[in-house]
Amino acid sequence: MSEQLADWTKGEQAITYQTCGACSHVQYFHRGFCAACGASDPHEARASGKGRVYAASLVCRAATPGTRAHVPYNILLVDCAEGFRMMAHGDSGLAIGDSVTVSFKPFAGKLVPFFTRET
Question: Contact, 82 vs 108, CB < 8 A?
Fold first, then answer.
């Protein structure tokens, strides 16, 4: 498998995803194989950071002591422009169908993707 590009899970302000050269499947969770056809060594790329809100949920109760200072916060499912869906944080005023773009913000000691309405 080729070396992974650094992304937000490694402290970089980027979202990465994979595409399969054999079947063109797009996947967000990094694997050493295509989840659709099993081909090895999917290609990694950086996402544009643009997408559309698929679902939104306002979290009003802290799951851990470290997240207590952030309550309430919005968790989104975002259909990204490249064809994958991801979970991320976002503005509380976002609604299903809104066009969004990503930035990155600290949350409970980590850098996380944070979507805002595209202007």
Answer: no
Other beta carbons within 10 angstroms of residue 78's beta carbon come to 26
Q: Return the SS3 of 116.
A: strand
Using CA atoms, how far apart are residues 26 and 43, in angstroms rounded to an integer? 10
113: cis peptide before it, omega within 30°? Answer: no
CATH of 50-117, one of 2.40.50, 1.10.4030, 3.30.460, 2.60.40: 2.40.50
**Cα 57 → chain centroid:** 15
Residue 19 three-state SS: strand
pLDDT means over runs of 10, the chain (119 residues) = 78 95 95 96 96 96 90 96 98 96 94 95
Range 86-110 burial, b when 16+ CB lie within 10 A, else e: bebbbbeebeeebebebebeebeee
CB-based contact 90:77 (threshold 8 Å): no
